[in-house]
Amino acid sequence: MAVYHYDVVVIGTGPAGESAAVNAAKKGKRVGVVESYKVVGGNCTHMGTIPSKALRHAVKQIIEFNTNPMFRDIGEPRWFSFPRVLKQAEQVMAKQVQMRTNFYARNRVDVFFGHARFTDANTVLVEGARGKGDEELKADKIVIATGSSPYCPPDVDFTHPRIYNSDTILKLSHTPRTLIIYGAGVIGCEYASIFSGLGVKVDLIDTRERLLSFLDYQISDALSYHLRNNGVVIRHNEQYESVVGTDTGVVLTLKSGKKIRADAFLWCNGRTGNTADMNLEEIGLTPNSRGQLEVNEQYQTEVPHIYAAGDVIGWPSLASAAYDQGRSASSHISGSSDYRYVDEVPTGIYTIPEISSIGQSEEELTAAKIPYEVGQAFFKDTARAQITGETVGMLKLLFHRETLQLLGIHCFGDRASEIIHIGQAIMRQQGEANTIEYFIHTTFNYPTMAEAYRVAAMNGLNRISNH
Ligand SMILES: Cc1cc2nc3c(=O)[nH]c(=O)nc-3n(C[C@H](O)[C@H](O)[C@H](O)COP(=O)(O)OP(=O)(O)OC[C@H]3O[C@@H](n4cnc5c(N)ncnc54)[C@H](O)[C@@H]3O)c2cc1C
């Protein structure tokens, strides 16, 4: 068996693994990476972020074509199948793989394909893929960046051809007329937007009493309204009793006694860290009940020379954070000063409409007895939104009544996840630079959506002076 020696071995080539590996290589380490899938990119590229965002973009374009009267000059509204829009996503995925493969090559990082498991605390066995035999990688430091997979409860038959999870839905070869989505977290709500945008009648089953309850209440209400407006039936506080696949569809029985039938069923309820079959217990690491590993603020596990980053450590389970966590882990390994603990993470939710937020919510500020005020701007009142026709949405700024310091930014509507970063940059300023006055004392391009910050800041200041 071939044996290789590295300074750092990284397991997984998602955002966390890639950034850990490339950063370590840039800092002069010899790095080897292991990936069990046939190409690099991680679930982020193949099952999660990239395909779902590309699907959503294609669906938004279809909605635009079908609803904008200008396009009636060139044709009637058209129906597009799910496999057709999936093709768009596959093109993006292929570009991502090519680009990411080059990152490893350019930085002289060796990539090994096969399932990785530990044989001791410094040795990883790569169980041969692509007809190769097993290979052994020895390293001083190891980063576990193996990501997560959909949690699949044993009483649901995921081998049935009409029962899917968020990975297998990307193999859907037809377009159902009706779809049940079980689980109304971020992934469930995003897929509810995608399928309802394609004209599928969606039943969205929420196990909680409010959609995405971690969001500002106004924004979560707006999401419910717009999903319903697009034909989605949302059922709150429900739990499944059984999910039964038939020849023609799926029957979901809820504990409340309801029975719902649909052509297909998509399970979006929970994810599990990818830690099985890695021999972790043998080296002193015990994942929790969700398959996740605990780390300290330096991303070290209980075995200090073994680090973990990305979805495998749990919160926030976002590609955005996974990149930074992986980079931080390898900066710590390299003794570099650019290490940072990733704790301030914006929320970006690619539903239709898009949602993004950072900082505290009204509920949190009220509970903490912080005197705050609200400034809001509606997209429909900005010139840019009137031009693009993307008039659904709002920007809400929460700021301290006395210091005017920005405390929270909550936004929904077209490009909310981009718009939020303008405010984020101001929020992160030190001293008096992080107040909403910035938006009034700064000239913004016109017409832009950035203008919404000025409008919201003015609205907020008026509210204070009127009180
Ligand atoms: C439908 C969906 C939509 C999402 N949308 C967004 C979004 O819009 N924005 C956002 O920020 N996040 C989003 N996410 C979350 C994001 O995809 C994850 O947070 C991100 O992929 C985590 O990155 P990671 O590097 O930890 O792991 P992953 O991307 O999961 O990659 C882990 C890699 O490790 C490999 N691996 C696992 N075990 C082994 C082993 N034993 N040996 C070798 N290789 C192994 C896997 O094959 C995989 O390639 C979404 C997720 C889903 C499911």
Rounded to the nearest angstrom, the radius of gyration is 24 Å
What is the 3D shape?
A: globular
Termini separation:
77 Å
Q: Unreliable stretches, pLDDT < 50, 5 or more residues?
A: none
Mean pLDDT: 96
Describe this protein's structure:
There is one protein chain. By secondary structure, the protein is α/β, with parallel strands linked by helices. Helix content is 30%, strand content 25%. It contains eleven helices and 21 strands. It has helices at 15-26, 42-46, 49-67, 82-106, 186-197, 217-229, 319-333, 362-367, 383-388, 416-427, 451-466; strands spanning 2-11, 31-35, 110-120, 123-128, 135-144, 148-150, 163-165, 178-182, 201-205, 233-235, 240-245, 250-254, 259-262, 264-267, 271-273, 306-308, 347-349, 355-359, 372-378, 393-400, 406-413. The strands form five sheets. A five-stranded mixed barrel has the order 1-2-3-4-5. A five-stranded parallel β-sheet has the order 7-14-8-9-10. The radius of gyration is 24 Å and the shape is globular. The mean pLDDT is 96. The structure holds flavin-adenine dinucleotide. Flavin-adenine dinucleotide (FAD) binds at residues 11-17, 34-37, 42-44, 47-49, 52-53, 115-116, 145-148, 166, 187, 274, 278, 310-312, 317-320, 322, 348, 350. Flavin-adenine dinucleotide binds at residues 11-17, 34-37, 42-44, 47-49, 52-53, 115-116, 145-148, 166, 187, 274, 278, 310-312, 317-320, 322, 348, 350. Its EC number is 1.6.1.1. GO terms for molecular function: NAD(P)+ transhydrogenase (Si-specific) activity. Its main location: cytoplasm. It catalyses: NAD(+) + NADPH = NADH + NADP(+). FAD binds at residues 35-44.
